[in-house]
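Input (structure):
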């Protein structure tokens, strides 16, 4: 109700015939106007309160959805190892070549735990390993046992530029011993070899994608699911096993990078438990000019 409606209502009820009547009419008019103003203000305040409550509820709901998606396990997105490798391959293929690939030395830094000795007397030796290696086989290795520089031909270099960007052709070459100078004894070792090529060489994006495709075609490779590597990074793992050992690879699904590679020897079933043969956690890689340089971490 607006002021004009109030005046009309007042006029219908109060005949204004003298000064006293006019004063009474004005008084009643002010009372009605004040009451209507208070009602309108209260209604407006209630509408604003409801709007704020609705906005807060919407924001809270959005935050809850973000939180839910943030904690959902990423491994739940995949039913098989082949599905994971397919996605990893697509991610790798979209990657760009390293702008510093004109450097002479390929650099890799890893945290390693390696079994030394046999049986019950074996021990696990842990440490950081850095390697610089050039195409001519020269380079440097720095780890807990020392720091050594190598002359040309003293380190084995795998030239990935000569490998085909075709998954089936790669599998034939790997199984035929044309890449590492010897054929892998089993498909378990074949998965380990592909992991080594992914993390310890510097393959171009299309070759990296093909290596991941090839890994997905190895019989017996299973999806393990969500894993955290020794550095505390979350990833998704796959594994391949035979009666004697088990190889596990952990990948970052966002970058398709191999975070960790490990091997576990099976126990003998007569009291000898499974034991870690090695665990390699890859931390940094890149291309540098000399054996005294390290890649610039963005």
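Output (sequence):
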């Amino acid at each position: 109700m607006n002021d004009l409606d109030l005046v009309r209502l007042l006029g219908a009820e109060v005949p204004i015939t003298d000064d006293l009547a006019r004063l009474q009419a004005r008084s009643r008019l002010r009372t009605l106007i004040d009451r209507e103003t208070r009602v309108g203000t209260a209604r407006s305040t209630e509408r604003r309160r409801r709007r704020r409550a609705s906005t807060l509820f919407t924001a809270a709901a959005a935050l809850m959805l973000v939180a839910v998606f943030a904690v959902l396990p990423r491994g739940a997105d995949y039913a098989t190892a082949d599905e994971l490798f397919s996605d990893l391959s697509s991610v790798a293929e979209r990657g760009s070549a390293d702008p510093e690939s004109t450097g002479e030395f390929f650099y890799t830094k890893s945290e390693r735990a390696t079994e030394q000795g046999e049986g019950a007397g074996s021990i696990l030796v842990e440490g950081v390993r850095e390697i610089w290696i050039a195409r001519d086989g020269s380079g440097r290795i720095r780890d807990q046992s020392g720091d050594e520089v190598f002359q040309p031909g003293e380190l084995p270099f795998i030239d990935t530029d000569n490998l085909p960007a075709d998954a089936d052709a790669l599998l034939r070459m790997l199984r035929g011993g044309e890449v590492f100078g010897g054929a892998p004894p089993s498909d378990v070792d074949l998965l380990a070899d592909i992991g080594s090529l992914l993390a310890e060489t510097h393959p171009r994006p299309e070759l990296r994608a093909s290596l991941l495709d090839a890994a997905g075609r190895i019989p017996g490779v299973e999806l393990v699911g969500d894993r955290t590597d020794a550095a505390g990074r979350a990833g998704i793992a796959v594994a391949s096993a035979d009666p004697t050992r088990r190889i596990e690879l952990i990948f970052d699904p966002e970058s398709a990078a191999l975070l960790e590679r490990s091997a576990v020897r099976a126990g003998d079933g007569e009291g000898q438990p499974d034991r870690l043969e090695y665990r390699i956690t890859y931390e940094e890689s890149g291309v540098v000019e000399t054996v005294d340089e390290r890649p610039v971490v963005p």
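Notes: The radius of gyration is 36 Å. Residues 1-17, 56-73 have pLDDT under 50 and may be disordered.
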